[in-house]
Amino acid sequence: MHLRLISWFFIILNFMEYIGSQNASRGRRQRRMHPNVSQGCQGGCATCSDYNGCLSCKPRLFFVLERIGMKQIGVCLSSCPSGYYGTRYPDINKCTKCKADCDTCFNKNFCTKCKSGFYLHLGKCLDNCPEGLEANNHTMECVSIVHCEASEWSPWSPCMKKGKTCGFKRGTETRVREITQHPSAKGNLCPPTSETRKCTVQRKKCQKGERGKKGRERKRKKPNKEESKDAVPDNKGLEPSRETPEPRENKDKQQQKKRKVQDKQQKSSVDLFWGLKSS
């Protein structure tokens, strides 16, 4: 019985010595690989180096290499920075850089945002959008072409002429519709939103208050025209009254001249008569 206990004791002792030697050799191996490994790592690092930064990260953190000049330093982050996507492996979680034309990505084959000058379409960054799509310069994406859409026509309006619905036989009627969807840059243009056609109705007399706006405006304008017409004859009537004295004076002068000539002729004839008689 005592011999069994002693043998078990030696077996356990030898096993513990073996485990200790294994741990010591593993530590020596790690020190050989990373001679500058630091035990007091910060910033989520599980192991680190004074020269290279983090060498491994704590669970659920992502390992990423940051370039500082010609040197790369390992960093442990809770999520990957812009331009990188994260991949989880059993032994390490890594951040991998997106493609050159990709600003942010979900994985190496699927971009979520493109760099300037590229348009996003189905996870890829393109120089030009494919046929049937157009570029949206605001979101920098390839989107579907939107065509204009309009509502149904409204009923035809009452037959009218010059703003009224009475006092005529032939007029026009109108119907309208609204634009429900405006087109995109490459979409079809919008159709007309109003239509007018001729109409014929039975003439009916306009009652008081039914005259259109144009009729009222004409009524207002008519007195002014009549006043202007009345004013014109007055001015014309005044002008001859001013001009009439001048022709009368001329006529009087002409008559006086004629009388003088006649008087001279009479005198000359009388003188001739008396001269002949005395001889």
UniProtKB/TrEMBL annotation:
Chain spans, region Disordered: 201-279
Limits of the Spondin-like TSP1 domain: 148-203
Record keywords: Disulfide bond, Glycoprotein, Heparin-binding, Repeat, Secreted, Sensory transduction, Signal, Wnt signaling pathway
Signal peptide start-end: 1-21
InterPro entries named in the record: Furin_repeat, Growth_fac_rcpt_cys_sf, R-spondin, Rspo_Fu-CRD_dom, TSP1_rpt, TSP1_rpt_sf, TSP1_spondin_dom
A GO molecular function held by the record: heparin binding
Biased composition (Basic and acidic residues): 224-255
Domain of life, per lineage: Eukaryota
CDD domains: FU
Occurrences of domain R-spondin Fu-CRD (ranges): 43-142
GO CC, alphabetical: extracellular region
Basic residues bias: start-end ranges: 213-223
Subcellular location as annotated: Secreted
Keyword Transport: no
Keyword Secreted tagged: yes
Gene Ontology biological process: blood vessel remodeling; branching involved in labyrinthine layer morphogenesis; canonical Wnt signaling pathway; positive regulation of canonical Wnt signaling pathway; positive regulation of non-canonical Wnt signaling pathway; sprouting angiogenesis
General function of this protein: Activator of the canonical Wnt signaling pathway by acting as a ligand for LGR4-6 receptors, which acts as a key regulator of angiogenesis. Upon binding to LGR4-6 (LGR4, LGR5 or LGR6), LGR4-6 associate with phosphorylated LRP6 and frizzled receptors that are activated by extracellular Wnt receptors, triggering the canonical Wnt signaling pathway to increase expression of target genes. Also regulates the canonical Wnt/beta-catenin-dependent pathway and non-canonical Wnt signaling by acting as an inhibitor of ZNRF3, an important regulator of the Wnt signaling pathway.
Subunit structure comment from the entry: Interacts with the extracellular domain of FZD8 and LRP6. It however does not form a ternary complex with FZD8 and LRP6. Interacts with WNT1. Binds heparin. Interacts with LGR4, LGR5 and LGR6.
Family the UniProt entry places it in: Belongs to the R-spondin family.
Record-given protein name: R-spondin-3
Annotated source species: Canis lupus dingo
Organism taxonomic ancestry: Eukaryota, Metazoa, Chordata, Craniata, Vertebrata
Gene name linked to the record: RSPO3
